[in-house]
Amino acid sequence: MILAVAWRNIWRSKTRSLVILVAICLGLASGVFYMGFYQGMVDQRINTAIKTEASHIQIHHREYLNNPDKKFVIADADSVTKVIRSVSGVKATTSRIIMNTMIQSPTTSSGVKVTGVIPEDEKQVTNLYTRLIEGTYFEEGKRNPIVIGKKLAEKLKVKLKSKVVITLQDMQGNMTGAAFKVEGIFETSNTAFDESCVFVRNDDISRIMVMDPNSCHEIAVLLDNNEELALADQTIQSKLRGLDVKTWREIMPDVSLVESSFGLTMIIFMGVILLALLFGIINTMLMAVLERTKELGMLMAIGMNKFRVFMMILLETVMLSLVGGVCGIVLGWMLNLYFGVKGIDLGAWSTAYKSMGFDTLVYTKLSWSISFEIAVMVVVTGIIAAIYPAMKALKLKPAEAVRVDM
């Protein structure tokens, strides 16, 4: 009975109830949509970091990451790779030769990270070949091809078929170099990566460096999915105790920080929205209680105890919050579903977003568990908002309340 009375009380002042319902609905819809937007942006950054830049796990010589010198190689890379591929959850592996050196064009030069790759294996681990905007990915079969980023190509003022010279030291410490012809130009969502990384064939760079073809500086590992990262990392470490095994979170701490900050950012954002709604609901319910002073006094005078009065106001507030909250969550989900397919184009701010490694076309994404958590927070907010108006009603004295001239 109290439930029915509370529901009818909500609609005694339709305008006031509708205003607060719309406020709750729009506030929560904005919150849910922003959470989907931020989650989608973070997931895309992580996906790019794993599939284009770092892969899930990297293995190096124990000294290499502290001192990336050419002499710190992984010997017998084929045997190491065979061990890694036997680990459950490993989808593909590839070995790389890495040199930090200078690249020169006829007009200028720049410092770059040269990565020697085995194209067939690299395609299984990274998706860089899908990011080509011009040319091909080591398909022409000619000697010394090189694939560079769009940003670096603009800096060096080169295009397809242009020649660039890479200068480096061989394994004996002698200065050497070779001319490479630009075969492909790629563009990712990370301008720093595009400007600082170039890719050549593993065979070409090992020949120029006079390096054992069965050695490498890095082995990249792609897993079936990110959920297997911890177990695969632990297993590989136990099998390769003499090498340095690190996950993408350790290799790219900036991306890991973005991932770990998601929860805290969302709590703060939703906290601000719910706090604003809390005061709005308190104000609405307080007005409702003050307008019904005479009625509440009469109910208590004819025998309605304080617990029932408290429950009636509590149910009014919770139902008001719940109706607005459900509508807001549904509206937020509909927006997320739409923009999860169409995407949100942030091309107008591409320079800023790409400098931080974020895609400019963001597809929203939101899990059901987060929506459930929001629904719980809305109910809790409604209960908290009901306390002050209900306490105000409980303090009424029936004899005085019935004489109030409303």
From TrEMBL:
Q: Name one Pfam family in it.
A: FtsX
Keyword field: Cell membrane, Membrane, Transmembrane, Transmembrane helix
Coiled-coil residues are none
Query: According to its UniProt record, where is this protein located?
Result: Cell membrane
Any one Gene Ontology BP term: lipoprotein localization to outer membrane
Q: Can the keyword Mitochondrion be found in this entry's annotation? A: no
Which parts of the sequence belong to the ABC3 transporter permease C-terminal domain?
267-398
| Membrane-topology annotation of the record | Multi-pass membrane protein
Q: Which InterPro entries match?
A: ABC3_permease_C, Lipoprotein-release_system, MacB_PCD
Domain MacB-like periplasmic core, which positions?
A: 17-237
Task: Output the Gene Ontology cellular-component terms.
Answer: plasma membrane protein complex
Asked whether the UniProt record includes Membrane among its keywords, one would answer: yes
Report TM segments.
18-37, 262-289, 309-335, 366-388
Which protein family is named in the record?
A: Belongs to the ABC-4 integral membrane protein family. LolC/E subfamily.
Name this protein carries in UniProt: ABC-type transport system
